[in-house]
Amino acid sequence: MKTRRYGIIDRQKRRMLIPFLLPALVLYGAITLYPGISTFYMSVMDWGGVGDPVFIGLDNFTRLVRDPTLIKAAGNTFFYVVVGGFILFPLAITFALATKSLRRGKLYRFLILAPIALSVTTAALLWKFAFNPNFGFVGDVFAALGLEALSSWEWLGEPSTALFIVVLASVWHGIGIWMLFFISAIERVPPELREAAILDGANAFQVFRHITFPLIWEMTRTLIILWIIQASQAFGFIIAMTNGGPLGATEVIGTYLYKQAFVQFEYGYAAAVAIVLSLVVVTLTVISRRIGRRGEGVEY
Amino acid sequence: MNTARARWAVAAGAALALGLTACAPPSTDPTPAPTAGGLSGTLEVVSYHPENTPLYDRLAELAEQFEAQHDGLTVEITFGGGPGMPPIMTRYLAGDAPDVNPTLGGQCPNGELIEGGLTYDLSDALKSDFGDGGTWEDAIHPAVRSQLDSWVDDSVCMAPESVTVIQFFYNKKIFAEHGLSVPETIDDLIETAAALKSAGQTPFAVTGTFAFYMQLYWDYLMLRHVGAEAYTHAIGGAQVTREPIPGERPLLADLPGVRDAARDLERLVSDGNILDGFRSTDFTAAQMSFFQGDAAMILMGSWLVSEMADAIPEDFEVGTFAFPVATGGAGDQATTIGGVQGLSVAADAKNPEAAIEWLKFIGQADVQATYASEFGAISGYKAAPAPEGFEAVVDMLADGEMQMMYFGLLGQSAEIQAAIHEPLTQLFFGQIGADEMVTQMSQRLDAANG
Predict the structure, then answer these.
(1) Which residue pairs, CB below 8 angstroms and at least 24 apart, start in B306-314?
(2) What are the pLDDT digits (tens) for B378-435?
(3) B340 three-class SS
(4) Which residues pair with A45 in a beta bridge?
(5) Do B9 and A261 count as a contact with CB atoms less than 8 A apart?
(6) A11 in a domain, yes or no?
(7) DSSP B381
(8) Are the beta carbons of B57 and B78 closer than 8 angstroms?
(9) Is residue A29 part of a domain?
(10) Rounded CA gap, B190 and B267, in Å?
(11) Does B393 contact A at CB distance below 8 Å?
(12) b/e sequence A197-218, b meaning 16+ C-beta within 10 Å
């Protein structure tokens, strides 16, 4: 094997790099590496927060497999990611395209983006009040439409609908940002390509299907991965709207982890859950990248 | 919660624990009493109530009075309720605990804090002079004093601030309009509910989002039909009783009277007896519904009136009655479920002398009398008067026993809590019947207890 021999100047240049890299390396070690390693360490311990942690090997991980609440939480997390994604992406792309072509598009963009200015807690409470069966306006709207069965439905109290409503609230709150991402991607598509397609007789859907979408696919793929990471860590809306209820119907891994650590004070088990959550995020990300590669983006 | 935050929290906790074990090994010896002397410096007191609430304002006013009595002392109030609790816990672990911390649900602070030597042992302090010729301990109701001991060692982990009891609150006007009297037996209560419902009035306000409050119904029915000791034993409650319960833990489903309790619960909460929308109604909204007249009764702690003081209409007439007895029931018919709202001092308090004096100051007759008259609080001290409507409760504190709120379930594992709460919630939601609830609870408790 041929190795490169560094000269004195090269070696001095390399030494010069060390002081410049050191602050970043120290920060990275302190805020990423050390907590990560500590989490692995803690996941093989039984520790309630006080006293000596007791080494228990892989017991926390074997417990994970038998924990029905965690299994349910994992299923709910998957639902959150998939259903949320299927609602978010088509809507965000639609809003991006529509506000680009509509008159007063900027006003509509502002209105769609406005909820992001609210804190998660405020937005969650708004939705919670709106869906309250006693004084929420959603029930009144259904009643006005003559849909009596829906007007008295406990949207957040029924295990069958609670998680869906939380997903809707979360999408409503954040969709403006995703719309902006897509607007920036769409604006990068050369207009002459669309114009040429229109001249060739393509309708709006065909222009989107064959021109716009392939050219924004790279961005879409990255955004899907971002969504998977963000949605897998869902927490704020659920805590504020349902606290994981009713009957665990909205418990996700993030809320379960929090409760294990800060309500039950089972730090070792919470660390094991955190590791599993990280693995879930990485796995979903890899899968989505693999799937995404099947339709490679078009270079232009 | 995102992963990075979880890692941070766990990592920080791990580092702190290692530091604690290295630098300050836990001691089981009673913490030495503070030295006498003038009070100065800063005293940090935790409030469960957020700013701009009546109880926070009361605490702020007391802080000013205490400062006026001790030149050079400053009292700082830190919010530590709800979302403020985890940071307080973290501060305990970091050796930076606030001086005075309220305890929750009548229980000493987290048992592991006591085991870890992080809670000040008040044993010696309780023997000190209370300013009325007797000791601090003598000034406390006997039923309250018995609740102050830690269940993990011989220490005294808190001093009382007030006592809470769980009882029914009812709307006197609604009862009068329908010619109803206070029910004395569970059958009376079910008949009262039926009468209200047939008149178009919802009988009960309940929250479906907080299982511990639904558990209050079940706890009382078990107390009346089965008895405290057998129920506690079936839960696996040796961990929350100071003495192990002798004998093998019984299966919940085998307890005499358990199915009667479950059937009574089903009769109470089914057929539209509970406020519409209760499944997604949190406890504040449920309490608000009661005070707006949407429901005639609510089973709640004696803190209800003070907590909702700002929201109670001026013309609202609130009445109270004890949870009715089970005719022929094998359990305890006279016992009340409740708890001591206590104050604990951190072992590494920065100002332990001031902290203990603060606890004594809170217990003074005039402070307690104001608390009772303005907020309806029941005092843990003998000298304080009973608030209106709670005279019988205060008599009981002088003579009798009090059953710990939630039967100690707050201190149990998530699996044991879920074994009770999930089937119970399913029954409240009408998804399962009484027998199925008992079967599920029993099987899940058995699995959770190994």
Answers:
(1) B306/B54, B306/B55, B306/B375, B306/B376, B306/B377, B307/B55, B309/B54, B309/B375, B310/B54, B311/B287
(2) 899 988 888 877 777 777 777 767 788 888 887 778 888 999 999 999 999 999 999 9
(3) strand
(4) A55
(5) yes
(6) no
(7) B
(8) no
(9) no
(10) 7
(11) no
(12) beeeebeeeebbeebbbbbbbe
Residue A42 is assigned to a structural domain of this protein: no
On the question of pLDDT at A5 being above 80, the answer is no
Q: What is the DSSP string of B27-82?
A: --SPPPPPPPS---EEEEEEESSPTTSHHHHHHHHHHHHHHHHSTTEEEEEEE-SG
* pLDDT of the residue at B110: 55
Distance from CA of A247 to the nearest CA of B (A): 6
- C-alpha A270, offset from chain centre: 20
Q: Which CATH number fits domain B166-337+407-448: 3.20.20.70, 3.40.50.1110, 3.30.300.130, 3.40.190.10?
A: 3.40.190.10
Nearest by CB to residue B2, choosing from A34, A235, A247, is A235
Element housing B159 (H / E):
strand B159-171
- Residue that the structure tokens 């796995």 belong to: A283
Beta-carbon separation of A47 and B17 below 8 A: yes
| Residue A194, domain extent | 64-293
Q: Does B205 touch chain A (CB under 8 A)?
A: no
Q: For residue range B201-220, what is the model confidence (pLDDT) as tens digits?
A: 999 999 998 999 999 999 99
Residue B269 in tokens: 């909460």
The residue assigned the tokens 């008259």 is B373
Residues in chain A: 300
Residues near B135 by beta carbon (within 8 Å), at least 6 away in sequence: B126, B127, B128, B129
Alpha helices in B308-431 (DSSP H): 352-363, 365-375, 391-399, 414-428
Q: Determine the topology of domain B29-164+339-406 in CATH.
A: D-Maltodextrin-Binding Protein; domain 2 (3.40.190)
Count of structural domains within chain A: 1
Scanning every residue of chain B, which has its alpha carbon at the shortest distance from the alpha carbon of A267? B10
Q: Where in chain B is the domain with CATH 3.40.190.10?
A: 29-164+339-406, 166-337+407-448
